[in-house]
From TrEMBL:
InterPro entries: Beta-lactam/transpept-like, Beta-lactam_cat, Beta-lactam_class-A. It comes from Glycomyces buryatensis. This is Serine hydrolase. GO terms for biological process: beta-lactam antibiotic catabolic process; response to antibiotic. Pfam families: Beta-lactamase2. The lineage of its organism: Bacteria, Bacillati, Actinomycetota, Actinomycetes, Glycomycetales. One of its GO terms (molecular function) is beta-lactamase activity.
């Protein structure tokens, strides 16, 4: 049973930073859980890729998608950033390798192309199929950027890139666009995310193996595990946007416990004001204290 003052335990890490936390932990075996603001909506940003990965793997193992099918990634597909999204030249690559890049280096173009293979409608319907009532999935990274372009009255993504590079819009104008609004973009709750991870970890072995492997190879993020005890094995997926940081993870303990953890941090209209690392440390502290408070099975 969590202490009555549990929210203050978490908030003490974030209040001095001017940040609001949404956090939740769930035991993957017995379902016990606790959290703070765990039912309030949060922006997913790149955390959405774990949903894309799960649906892709599910379809592969049902024989609906051939992961060896090759895709040509061209300039028209590239969004900028890591992986194929930032390549200078066209490349031929399997859709299975795109899924791996999407998860390991948070490749946005890979996420677009994998979503194209599973179908945007399948991504949008995923929350209702899994009973995640606090989750809304509207599309892959390209969809989110296209929404931003419309909000800013910009013609297309090429024009949007020019606007962002030239800094011709203010931070306030950017934060008024849909990617910053949990009611208008890919969004979930901390409690829904741990419920989803429990579904994945307790689901069919081939799909669990894929998602677990990809999350274990994430090269960006690793926020929650920084203060974890030696021996904890972490599998994570992070996301970030100016003023938003989030990460979900599964911690597998040496004693056999398995915890799904989700921590999201919001600076409201701010941008963490140079304390990015302090916010990440607060997120890791929150994860550690969530695990301590949940404790061992009763």
């Amino acid at each position: 049973m969590a202490r009555p003052d549990w929210p203050r335990v978490i908030d003490q890490f974030f209040d001095p930073l001017g940040v609001v936390a949404h956090a939740h932990i769930r035991d993957l075996d017995d379902g016990r859980s606790l959290g703070v603001r765990e039912s309030e909506p949060v922006v997913l940003v790149s955390v959405v890729k774990v949903f894309i990965a799960w649906e892709f793997s599910r379809r592969v193992h049902e024989g609906l998608i051939d992961p060896a099918e090759t895709v040509r990634v061209t300039a028209a597909d590239r969004l900028g950033g890591t992986g194929t999204a930032g390549f200078r030249h066209d490349v031929q690559i399997s859709v299975g390798d795109l899924a791996q890049l999407m998860m390991e280096v948070s490749d946005n173009t890979a996420a677009d192309l994998v979503t194209r293979h599973i179908g945007a409608s399948a991504l949008r319907s995923l929350p209702s199929r899994l009973g995640l009532t606090g989750t809304r999935l509207i599309g892959s990274p390209r969809t989110i950027l296209e929404d931003m372009a419309r909000d800013l009255d910009v013609a297309d993504l090429e024009a949007l890139a020019h606007v962002l590079e030239s800094k011709s819009v203010t931070a306030e104008e950017l934060r008024a666009t849909s990617p910053w609004d949990p009611l208008r973009t890919n969004a979930s709750t901390a409690a829904d995310m741990t419920a989803f991870l429990r579904h994945v970890w307790n689901g069919p072995e081939p799909v669990r193996h894929d998602v677990r492997n990809w999350m274990g190879r994430q090269l960006t993020g690793g926020r929650l595990v920084r203060l974890a005890p030696t021996g904890v094995v972490s599998f994570g997926r992070s996301g970030s946007l100016p003023g938003w940081l989030g990460e979900i993870a599964v911690w597998e303990w040496p004693d056999g416990r398995r915890h799904a953890i989700a921590v999201f941090a919001s600076a409201g209209q701010g941008n963490f004001q140079g304390n990015f690392r302090e916010v990440e440390r607060a997120m890791s502290n929150a994860a550690l204290h969530l695990a301590d408070e949940l404790g061992a099975p009763q």
